[in-house]
Structures are given as structure tokens and as C-alpha cells.
């Protein structure tokens, strides 16, 4: 069961990474305009980030195995559709649909693990393996994307179909039917719609801000405010609100969610600058860039082997805080980047970022799920992934904005990169401060 669910996490990570590498080739082959290319990216980000909490809650209510299987099937179908696409709008639809599918699949997969293993060392080890394989999927996906794009960009869509089909076969036979008692209380559909609309609009506003699409940003912001206010009102009036009030009052959960968001925010901003530096300033190819950064996949080896021992000895939060410190160290080491840096000078920064995910991502996942009643495991998983995705969107948007401001102010490329690198460093420090603040409470149920 764990191998199958890790395969799904790997599939989601590798899919995102491969697609990002293939975008320039897709644009040239289909003759896409910049707006179309932007919406191919935005469609997935908005759908994935916007539907995550709803996806987690639906799994809690209607069966995690059932939701996982349906979502994986939809993911496979629309990945195949993207491979056969002949126009930009087809790719937009395909990526939006796969984003929604991933938003239902990922919380369901994580909650199957957290309810299938006894709380304690067994669950912690399972979660750390799951988190490490998922993160490794993204790192290895950069390399796989470069290789498959060299063969033909459509294989970036077809490869997930093959992998997804294998996972689906394994899931049908290896994932047991739901045995935990499902929540039978009335489902707050109005609150679910309002919350999902608010998150979708918020993610859209942040994501579009990185592209300078200000009319869309303003409209999405207004829509988000209206939807989230409506959700807040509904939370007070619904007999059974979509998010129990205990989740909103828990300092421990907020620390876990915000820590994950800051980790993703810093990583996305840092990766954005590093890719520009390597490809535009140093002339690296997409494959060379991916190979240069592949050391970050070290968490696939260390997260299942070393991190569980550290968590058992020192506790979840000390290890997580250590991971966030490695993230700050990574960005700090890259800050003085020069025009002719050798790979030996870059390597410590990439290695430190791999160690950051090794020691932070899994323990933060444990912190977000530990002590939560089985009936709410999908919900907390959905909230965690939402913060991670939202953090990534914010990190990319702010880093891109600072880079643009620096360039418009007359900075040469290297100076602009250095200015923008302060953003992920600041976000990492903010994550550390958030993680060390307050004392976590044991249970929210």
C-alpha cells in the first residue's frame, strides 16, 4: 500500500517538473502566444491549490480509497488528452483538469497513510518515506523532462499515463477498502463552494501578479474577498462547518501549515532565480540545469533512513526547524553568486536545499497530521497541501516582482539576481521564526 501511494506522490511531483522543462519546446511546436503559455501554467496551479481542501474533505466524507481511485483515473485520462492536444486551449483544459484531479488525489493518498498506520514511529516512518519520494519526484522530473523533451514533448504527457496506469492497477489490489468510520454529519456544500472559490481566486490573484496581469489580479482579489467573507459567515451559521473551529485555533497546526508554506515559497523563488542564472547568464541547457540541481533529490535517500531516527531521538519540531535552517543556509550560500562560478561553488547551496527538504518537509507533514482524528485526516492533509501550493505561488510572485523592479531600476542581470535572492532568504527566516514561536498542543479532536 505504501509503495503504491508513494508512486502517486512521485507521479504528481515528476509531472509538474517535466512539464515545466518542456514548456519552451511546446510553445515553439504549437506556436503558442505568451498568454496561452501563461494560462497553461496558471490553470494547473489555480486548480491544484484551489481545490485541495475540498478534495481532502470529500475524501473524509465519501471514502478516501474511492476518491483516490477516481482522481487518479481522471489524472490519467487528461494527461493522455494533453499528449494529443493540437491547440493551446486543449492544453489549458487538460492541465486544469489534472490540477483538480491532483487536488483530490494527494490529500486522499496522505490520509490513507495516516489512517492506515498506527500513530507513532510506524506512521512517522511511513509519512517520511512518502514525503521523501514525492519530493524526489520533482527533482528527478527535471532530468526526466529534459530527456523526454529531447525525444518529443508529447512524451512528457504520455509518460505519466504509463506510470499512472501501473499505480492504478496496484491501487485497486493493494489499497484496502476504507475501514475508518466516515463522518455522517450534514455536508456543508455552501461553505465548501465559498471556501473553494475564495482559495481559487486568491491563488489566481497571486499567480497572475507574477505575470503583471493587474486587471485579472484586481478582479480575482475582489472575488476572493467576497467569497472568503461569505465563507466566514457560513462558518458561524452552519450546523457542521466545513472546517472545525478547533483547526482555526490550534497554534501547533498553524505552525505546521505556515512552516510548509514558507519552505515552498523560498524554494520556488530560489529555483526561479537559479534557472535564470544557469540558462540565461551561463548558457546551460535545460538538461544541464536539471542535472546540476539533481543533488536536491538526496532527500529520497535520507528522508526514509536518517530523518526517522532524528525524529525519534530529538522530536518532530527540532528536526523540522533544523530543516528550515538548512533552507536559509542554502539561499545565503548562493547570495554572493558570481558571473563565472564553478559548479563546486554552487554545489553546497544545492546540497543544503536537499537537506532542508530531508529534515523539514516530512516532519512538518507529521506535525500537521499527528493527533488529528481519523475523520479529519483528509482535511488537515488538504490544508497542508494548500499552504504549500499557496506558499509556492507567493514565493514565485514576490521573487519575480523584485527581479523585475531591479531590472527596471537599471541593475545588470547578476545584480538583479542577487537582489531577488534576498526574497527566499527572508521567507526562510520567516519560516524559522514561525516554527520556533509558541508551544505545540498535542491534540485537535
From TrEMBL:
Its main location: membrane. Keywords: Cell membrane, Membrane, Transmembrane, Transmembrane helix, Transport. The keyword Plastid does not apply. It is a multi-pass membrane protein. InterPro entries: MFS, MFS_dom, MFS_trans_sf. Residues 1-443 form the Major facilitator superfamily (MFS) profile domain. The chain crosses the membrane at residues 37-55, 67-85, 91-115, 127-149, 155-175, 187-206, 212-233, 254-278, 284-302, 314-335, 341-362, 383-407, 419-438. The keyword rRNA-binding does not apply. It is found in: Cell membrane. Signal peptide: none annotated. It holds the Pfam family MFS_1. This is MFS transporter. The lineage of its organism: Bacteria, Bacillati, Actinomycetota, Actinomycetes, Micrococcales.
Amino acid at each position: 500500500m505504501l509503495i503504491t501511494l508513494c508512486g502517486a506522490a512521485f507521479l504528481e511531483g515528476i509531472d509538474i517538473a517535466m512539464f515545466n522543462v518542456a514548456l519552451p519546446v511546446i510553445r515553439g511546436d504549437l506556436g503558442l502566444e505568451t498568454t496561452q503559455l501563461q494560462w497553461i501554467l496558471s490553470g494547473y496551479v489555480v486548480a491544484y491549490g484551489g481545490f485541495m481542501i475540498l478534495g481532502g474533505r470529500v475524501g473524509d466524507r465519501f471514502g478516501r480509497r474511492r476518491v483516490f481511485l477516481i482522481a487518479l483515473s481522471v489524472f490519467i485520462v487528461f494527461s493522455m488528452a494533453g499528449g494529443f492536444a493540437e491547440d493551446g486551449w486543449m492544453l489549458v483544459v487538460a492541465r486544469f483538469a489534472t490540477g483538480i484531479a491532483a487536488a483530490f488525489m494527494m490529500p486522499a493518498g496522505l490520509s490513507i497513510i495516516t489512517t492506515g498506520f498506527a500513530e507513532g514511529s510506524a506512521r512517522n516512518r511511513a509519512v517520511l518515506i512518502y514525503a521523501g519520494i514525492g519530493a524526489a519526484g520533482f527533482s528527478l522530473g527535471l532530468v526526466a523532462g529534459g530527456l523526454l523533451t529531447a525525444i518529443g514533448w508529447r512524451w512528457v504527457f504520455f509518460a505519466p499515463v504509463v506510470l499512472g496506469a501501473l499505480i492504478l492497477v496496484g491501487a485497486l489490489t493493494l489499497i484496502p477498502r476504507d475501514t475508518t468510520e466516515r463522518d455522517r454529519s450534514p455536508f456543508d456544500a455552501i461553505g465548501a463552494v465559498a471556501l473553494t472559490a475564495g482559495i481559487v481566486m486568491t491563488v489566481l490573484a497571486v499567480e497572475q501578479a507574477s505575470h503583471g496581469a493587474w486587471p485579472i489580479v484586481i478582479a480575482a482579489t475582489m472575488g476572493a474577498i467576497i467569497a472568503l467573507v461569505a465563507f466566514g459567515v457560513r462558518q458561524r451559521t452552519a450546523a457542521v462547518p466545513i472546517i472545525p473551529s478547533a483547526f482555526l485555533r490550534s497554534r501547533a497546526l498553524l505552525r505546521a501549515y505556515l512552516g510548509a508554506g514558507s519552505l515552498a515559497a523560498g524554494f520556488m523563488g530560489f529555483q526561479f532565480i537559479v534557472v535564470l542564472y544557469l540558462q540565461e547568464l551561463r548558457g546551460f541547457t535545460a538538461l544541464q540545469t536539471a542535472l546540476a540541481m539533481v543533488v536536491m533529490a538526496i532527500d529520497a535517500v535520507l528522508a526514509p533512513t536518517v530523518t526517522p531516527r532524528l525524529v525519534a531521538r530529538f522530536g518532530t519540531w527540532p528536526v523540522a526547524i533544523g530543516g528550515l535552517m538548512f533552507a536559509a543556509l542554502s539561499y545565503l550560500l548562493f547570495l554572493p553568486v558570481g558571473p563565472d562560478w564553478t559548479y563546486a561553488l554552487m554545489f553546497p547551496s544545492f546540497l543544503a536545499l536537499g537537506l532542508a527538504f530531508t529534515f523539514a518537509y516530512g516532519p512538518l507533514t507529521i506535525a500537521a497530521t499527528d493527533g488529528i482524528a481519523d475523520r479529519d485526516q483528509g482535511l488537515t492533509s488538504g490544508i497542508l497541501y494548500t499552504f504549500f501550493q499557496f506558499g509556492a505561488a507567493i514565493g514565485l510572485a514576490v521573487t519575480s516582482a523584485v527581479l523585475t523592479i531591479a531590472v527596471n531600476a537599471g541593475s545588470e542581470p547578476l545584480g538583479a539576481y542577487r537582489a531577488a535572492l534576498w526574497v527566499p532568504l527572508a521567507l526562510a527566516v520567516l519560516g524559522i521564526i514561525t516554527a520556533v514561536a509558541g508551544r505545540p498542543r498535542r491534540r485537535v479532536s
